[in-house]
Amino acid sequence: MMLSESTFKSTRDGTRRRKPRLIDTDWLVLRKLSKALELFASQTVGSGDRIIDFGCGDQPYRELFETRGADYIGADFGDNSELKISAEGTINAPQADADFVASFQVLEHVQDVGRYLKEAHRIAKKDGELILSTHGTWLFHPHPEDHRRWTRMGLISELKTYGWEVTQCTSIVGPLACTTLIRLTGFCFALRKIPFFGALMAAPLAIIMNLRGLLEDAITPSAIINDNACIYLVRARKRINHS
Length: 243
Prior knowledge:
Blueprint: H1 5-18, H2 27-44, E1 50-54, H3 62-66, E2 71-76, E3 83-84, E4 98-104, H4 113-123, E5 124-135, H5 152-161, E6 164-172, H6 175-191, H7 197-219, H8 222-227, E7 231-238
Parallel strand pairs: 1-2, 1-4, 2-3, 4-5
Antiparallel strand pairs: 5-7, 6-7
Helix pairs in contact: 6-7
């Protein structure tokens, strides 16, 4: 079976997000997020758990859950997912259907955050949970839109407003390493515009600066990273008495 160009690109990007390469400008961020999600899945997800990935995209983390016996279901616009998201932002899934609602790097792209989080609340079971990652500090990146960034306090507060009680908040990549990755992204963007030699120069630069960022993150105090993260990964419990 031959893959179309669009399907091949989608599959390749999904694989890259799960297993980034050292020559990728976002290697450090994707690597740490993937490891954090793997730890979550190993400690929390069990056989038969129903997981709805709300805005699943290329579904890069499907394997993490399915290998543990979970029933993973992707939800998105278009025809490449099991569940469809309507133009109004609702999912064609019944109320209280999911043990876990997953949301990976989606919330910053959503226009109506309240509607999104309320719909996640609706489809979660009575004792259901939300596992969500989104940006603290990162470059503007519309896919096709990009609306906001959060502080730790702001993200926890917003989730609480829409019926979610945060039980865990993991900070991924601190401010020192993040500034290095932002510079790397800019340099590589410029280099890759140079025919042939640009890509050859971008790859070793990415390796050097990714390793620099890894070192910078290792020496940054955790107290600083906690409140100045590039990405926040939160686990939240559904509040039953929320109206």
